[in-house]
Amino acid sequence: MFPELKLQENIKKQAGKSMYELIQRLYPLCRSITGNGVRETLSVLKEFIPLTIVEVASGTKVLDWEVPDEWNINDAWIKNEEGEKIVDFKKLNLHVLNYSTPVNKEVDLGELKKHLFTIPESPDWVPYRTSYYNRNWGFCLSHNQYEKLPEGKYFVHVDSEIKPGALTYGEYLVPGKTDKEVLLSCHICHPSLCNDNLSGIVLATKMAEFLKTQDLHYSYRFLFIPGTIGSITWLSRNEKKLDKIRHGLVLTLLGDSSAYHYKKSRRGNCEIDNIMEYLLEKEEGAKLLDFSPYGYDERQFCSPGFNLPVGRLSRKPHGEFPEYHTSADDINFVAPENLSHSFVFLLKVIKLIEGNKKWLNLKPKGEPQLGKRGLYKPIGGQSQQKDYQMAILWVLNLSDGNHSMLDIAKKSGIDFDILLLAAENLSKANLLEEAGDNYEV
Ligand code: ZN
After folding, report:
1. Å from CA of 296 to ligand 1 middle
2. How many Å lie between the centroid of ligand 1 and the Cα of residue 395?
3. Does residue 324 belong to any structural domain of this protein?
4. Are 276 and 153 members of one domain?
5. Are 148 and 177 within one domain?
6. Partners of 247 in the beta sheet?
7. Cα(190) to centroid of ligand 1, in Å?
């Protein structure tokens, strides 16, 4: 009946540490929108949660798109005239243009430069670049190195393959009492980037691992999908099930230390939007962003034909920090304490989702006599006790079937946990009954 999301200090600490360790393991894998990097990533996640791994063949029509050919890479480098490797994929996988076609030839500096990518504004960092749909070969390197390349001959080598294969994604449903679902989605298509993609992946994994031990009202569907083409593929294969989704979040950029940013769903006034607005008011510096048709997979979930109640939770939004899509989004850019904070915050969101019901006061004429029902029983400290007594009165008064627990929290200003406890005890004393689920679609 109630979400027993018991959270102890050691769970918080453990979650941060284990998420960080998982990032360290996944960091070296060369992920892309298809290929073995994604498969290896999902097989690591399978150690923690029983993921279903889905393979969709290249060429499959998915909505207005088609699953692309699969890309795999073994090695890539640039050698100078002396035969020294001056750029080496094995040292950092960002050095190769993601989806680079194979190449193996000698080029002069002028020709080479047409295939090099740098960031002049951050000259020490290597950019992350992709070319999924325009066939090209290329390398990424620091602007400092680029500027110092002498005239002469270079040997370029990309040992990659692009051919029909499959797009791979992972999915896991944690069952609750109802088949109504909460969708939690993250992208798994970036190579060695930590905040962008890995933070969302490890948070979703550890949250799924935690939730599967809990007694839940909703069912929680976790998606580990390549950005854009992955959500399009998943949506096209699951169109008939979408009406089960009551709330959703795209999880990304959750390992840095910035304040939370929540991007509302396209509808803008869904229950998840209201829950996030309520919770973010209590988080220092947090910002609510209106929906826009740019960003991560919320673009697909909130396309007009689906218009799902899905928002996006991040710390610093994409594109608004210089490390975004560069080699500086590395293992030092994320920290266990930030990941742990994101874990705890997401749990608060889930607790609100679970507890945001409407109740019906069964003795609405006059105030019921609380003393004889043991409802003056002390809880916690003195200030909590006062809030608890007020919570009893607020829950009784507003449980007319029209107010959700979130409405009561907003009106009363009382902590949601204390309101939940009050409702639980009132229900045990047969003064409240559930007035149905508080969801609209
Ligand atoms: Zn990205």
Report:
1. 8
2. 44
3. yes
4. no
5. no
6. 182
7. 7
**Residue 262 exposed, middle or buried by CB count within 10 Å (0-12, 13-18, 19+):** buried
In the reported structure, the alpha carbon of residue 24 is separated from the centroid of ligand 1 by a whole-number distance in angstroms of 18
Domain range for 122: 71-163
Alpha-carbon span 269 to 292, nearest angstrom: 14
Determine, yes or no, domain membership for 143: yes
Around Cβ 69, how many Cβ atoms within 10 Å? 18
pTM reported for the whole predicted model: 0.95
Q: Which are the contacts of 403, defined by CB distance < 8 A and separation ≥ 6? A: 358, 411
Q: Is residue 154 part of a domain?
A: yes
Cα–ligand 1 centroid distance for 222 (angstroms): 19
Going from the first residue of the chain to its last (441 residues), give the mean pLDDT of each consecutive group of 10, the final group possibly shorter: 50 88 98 98 98 98 98 98 98 98 98 98 98 97 98 98 98 97 98 98 97 95 98 98 98 97 98 97 96 97 98 92 97 97 96 95 95 80 83 97 95 94 95 74 37
Q: Residue 396 Cα, ligand 1 centroid: separation in angstroms?
A: 47
The closest of 167, 88, 97 to 132, measured between CA atoms, is 97
- Find the 134 Cα to ligand 1 centroid distance in Å: 18
- HSE-up (13 A, CA, CB side) for residue 21: 9
Residue 384's CATH number: 1.10.10.10
State the Cα–Cα distance between residues 221 and 333, nearest whole angstrom. 28
> For the chain, how many structural domains are there in total?
3
What are 32's two structure tokens?
């892309």
Asked if residue 440 belongs to a domain, the reply is no
